[in-house]
Design a protein that fits this description.
The complex is a heterodimer of chains A (about 500) and B (about 250).
Chain A (H helix, E strand, L loop, with lengths): L9 H9 L2 H23 L4 H17 L1 H14 L3 E5 L2 H15 L3 E4 L3 H6 L1 H7 L3 E4 L2 H9 L15 H12 L7 H18 L2 E4 L3 E3 L4 E6 L3 H7 L3 E7 L3 E2 L2 H16 L6 E5 L13 E7 L3 H6 L13 H5 L1 H6 L10 H12 L16 H5 L6 H14 L5 H14 L2 H18 L14 H7 L11 H13 L10 H5 L3
Parallel strand pairs in A: 1-10, 2-3, 2-4, 4-7, 5-8, 7-10
Antiparallel strand pairs in A: 5-6, 6-9
Helix pairs in contact in A: 2-12, 3-12, 5-7, 16-18
Chain B lengths: L1 E5 L2 H5 L2 H13 L3 E3 L9 H4 L4 H15 L5 E3 L2 H10 L1 H4 L3 H10 L3 E3 H8 L8 E8 L3 H6 L4 H8 L2 E5 L15 H4 L1 H17 L4 E4 L2 H16 L8 E4 H5 L6
The chains are: A alpha/beta (about 500), B alpha/beta (about 250).
Chain lengths: ~500, ~250
């Protein structure tokens, strides 16, 4: 169960997570801080939107020619001395990891933050084999120690505050300090440093794989990625087949967009380019490097209507701006891919049966697509999911009946006229003194969702009939009798 | 100029006064406003909920209703976006309708964009004393790129000053059927929006898309009822403001 970690119904997950006050506040302020910093940088970069267009074109070009680029990257990586593996499924990918561990005679390995290894379930697979991957990214250490799921793709431990991290580390890792971030980090360093020096296998992801040089890159802020990829004798790099860029010039475009979009800064503190194992005469670096190119459904996505989703560079900008993510927080999505890109990707990776309601987690406001550095039309892809769900028969019962009836009503002028008339009478019966449809109407199923927290203004004489009356009275020679009266009529209250 | 008016079904059924205000403004600016009898809805409530196939007759009905008009003015940015940009996906393979729609789409103008860019008018001769804050509706602002026009119109209203609320371009949480299907989430989003409007101290919350305004007003009314605020903040469609004439 690597992608979906919470199988509770969507409504239930929403309810649970809406109630988590700290988590809710933490996501809101993280969104404001990250997008605030990002917006300031974008404002100061007049070429930003051109850069986005270039990046979208580079990504689309790679996807259109993915067979070529996968081959080119693999050949160049091998030329540099890497051992390249191809994994069609999550299982195959995790099994390759297991085999590398066995060959290296290692029972443990150290790992830099990598979503792809989570997607294919490396940690779970190793544990099932009696082996263990030790996370080294601060946030991942927190999650691994607590046994908690990520709530964001870039800052996955957003749902922990410093006090809860202090308590967690005291309880599980023998930490004795206070909730001071520096002190906690110093402790983590003393905890991790011996591991960096002693472990024989390192595991990392890859932000971008450069096809014409066979290089894997790693963008991190803590330096742990660099240690994982240079200290142990054996390095395993997991690369999604879609994460390829043609050359170093396009890598530059992608990296600038990635860092600014992900954390609102120009650069991260570490940017590692890894081009194969240590060469003769070199002082450091792994002796052997395994590159695992993972498909896990990507070829199918490539062939279908969701190809644009594969442009994703995992910056998290879409969730940093999403009004729904802001409130329900990462855990309500129940997937390691939350937010708008998660709503698109999770059903593609795991199928509709387990993700039927996920595409509901969107107001179609388009803020995500507007923010996306590679211009993925996220709202449009979510809309596509909704339509596929209905067409595929995943939406049944009352909802289906109601919408199909609405289709008939709104498609016919005559039926619509009748509905408006009946509706107005019905609403008259529901409004109380206030003239609005309020909580008293909660028993009406269709209205309940609305009137649980909001009032609904009642139906009046339709615009259509008011307009017609006005035209008639004019023809009768009444002239332009209407004074402007917007506020009196419309702004009641 | 003869224009065919597209009020949107929400205004038709729930907010006729907003539609009438828009008609008066357009007429004052010299337009001859017609309302095609056949028009009902753009189809968005259905196709945004996934019922794209069931929406085809609605979309086709809208195309038929407006196909013979040179200029169409939509009071809702969201409905305009639906017809201009999205409907093509849901028309189906019917080549005749696809042709009609691609000819129709560029002739559809959103109300504020029509006044500023087509008629070339910024000062419509309106007056309202007070401070307004403008909610930047998503489809209007982001999807159609219409932002400058409503702000220009509001800036020209005599006696009215503008104040920006926090995250003015964040979604209000309506999302069409989203607000009925996921009311718990929608409620949280609209509450934050309403609080932002209250905080900025404006007398009027103005928008150019009635669906968002219905959502925000619904939340504000409920907050008043529960005694959470006694602010006199009024929720108004921009058409209603432009309809308030100088010296009236």
């Amino acid at each position: 169960m690597p992608v979906i970690y919470d199988e509770a119904p969507f409504k239930e997950r929403v309810k649970t997570n809406l109630a988590k006050e700290f988590q809710h506040g933490a996501i809101m302020s993280a969104q404001d801080v990250i997008t605030g910093k990002r917006d300031a940088l974008v404002e100061a970069e007049p070429g930003w939107h051109h850069l986005r267009s270039s990046a979208a074109a580079i990504r689309a070009h790679v996807l259109d020619n993915l067979d070529f680029y996968v081959r080119q990257f693999a050949e160049n990586a091998e030329r540099r001395g890497c051992r390249v593996h191809f994994a069609r499924t999550a299982d195959e990918a995790a099994t390759i990891m297991e085999q590398v561990m066995r060959d290296a005679g290692a029972a443990t390995c150290i790992k830099a933050k990598s979503l792809l290894t989570e997607e294919v379930g490396v940690n779970e697979h190793l544990e099932a084999c009696g082996m263990r991957a030790i996370e080294t990214d601060c946030a991942e250490v927190v999650l691994q120690t607590a046994g908690s799921a990520p709530s964001h793709i870039v800052v996955p431990a957003l749902h922990f505050d410093r006090a809860s991290i202090r308590d967690l580390f005291r309880e599980r890792l023998g930490y004795e300090g206070e909730d001071d971030p520096e002190e906690i980090t110093r402790f983590l360093r003393s905890f991790l440093r011996p591991r960096f020096l002693s472990e024989r296998v390192g595991v990392a992801g890859c932000n971008f794989a450069v096809a014409d040089s066979g290089t894997c890159t790693l963008v991190t802020n803590e330096g742990n990625g660099r240690m994982v990829s240079s200290f142990p004798e054996t390095l395993v790099v997991f690369v999604g087949i879609e994460r390829i860029v043609p050359d170093l010039a396009s890598l530059d475009v992608m990296t600038r967009l990635l860092v600014t979009s992900a954390v609102g800064s120009k650069l991260t503190s570490s940017f590692t380019l890894n081009s194969g194992p240590r060469l003769e005469g070199e002082a450091d670096g792994p002796k052997s490097v395994h590159v695992v190119l993972v498909d896990n459904g990507r070829s199918d996505i490539l062939a279908g209507p969701y190809r644009d989703a594969l442009r994703c560079i995992h910056c998290g900008a879409c969730m940093n701006t999403c009004p729904v993510y802001r409130h329900i927080t990462g855990h309500a999505y129940g997937s390691i891919y939350p937010g708008p890109i998660g709503v698109v990707m999770t059903p593609l990776l795991e199928g509709y049966e387990r993700t039927k309601k996920l595409p509901n987690a969107c107001t179609l406001c388009g803020a995500c697509a507007d923010m996306c550095p590679v211009r993925i039309p996220l709202n449009s892809l979510i809309l596509q999911h909704r339509n596929n769900l209905v067409d595929g028969g995943y939406v049944q019962g009352g909802e289906r009946i109601a919408f199909e009836a609405a289709g008939k009503l709104l498609g016919s002028r005559a039926l619509y006229g009748m509905m408006a008339g009946v509706g107005r009478l019905g609403m008259k019966a529901m409004t109380g003194k206030s003239g609005r449809v309020g909580e008293a109407s909660n028993w009406i199923p269709v209205l309940k969702g609305w009137t649980g927290s909001r009032d609904l203004d009642p139906m009046k004489k339709t615009f259509r009939s008011q307009f017609a009356e006005r035209q008639r009275s004019r023809q009768d020679g009444a002239g332009d009798a209407d004074a402007s009266s917007g506020v009196e009529e419309g702004g009641r209250r | 100029m003869k224009v065919a008016f597209f009020p949107g079904c929400l205004v038709d059924m729930f907010y006729p006064e907003v539609g009438m205000a828009a008609v008066r403004v357009l007429e004052r600016l010299g337009c001859d406003v017609e309302l095609p009898d056949k028009q009902v809805c753009c189809g968005q409530p259905l196709f945004n909920s996934g019922f794209g196939k069931a929406s085809a007759p609605i979309v086709k009905n809208a195309i038929d209703a407006y196909a013979d008009y040179e200029t169409i003015v939509s009071l809702s940015g969201s409905c305009a976006y639906a017809l201009k940009e999205e409907a093509m996906r849901f028309v189906g393979d019917d080549a005749a309708y696809r042709r009609k729609l691609s000819a129709l789409a560029p002739r559809i103008h959103e109300f504020t964009e029509f006044i500023v860019d087509v008629l070339g008018v910024v000062d419509v001769g309106a007056r309202l004393d007070g401070t307004a804050t403008y909610h930047r509706s998503c489809h209007l602002t982001r999807c159609l790129g219409i932002e400058r026009q409503p702000l220009a119109l509001l800036s020209a209203v005599e006696g009215l000053s503008l104040v920006e609320m926090r995250a003015a371009d964040r979604c209000c949480g309506f999302g069409g059927t989203f607000s009925f299907k996921e009311p718990e989430i929608s409620e949280q989003i609209v509450r934050e929006k309403t609080l932002a409007a209250l905080e900025c101290g404006a007398d009027f919350l103005v928008g150019a898309d009635q669906c968002c305004l219905m959502n925000i007003k619904g939340c504000l009314d409920r907050m008043r009822e529960r005694g959470e605020t006694n602010s006199p903040l009024r929720v108004l469609h921009i058409a209603q403001i432009l309809d308030m004439r100088k010296g009236a």
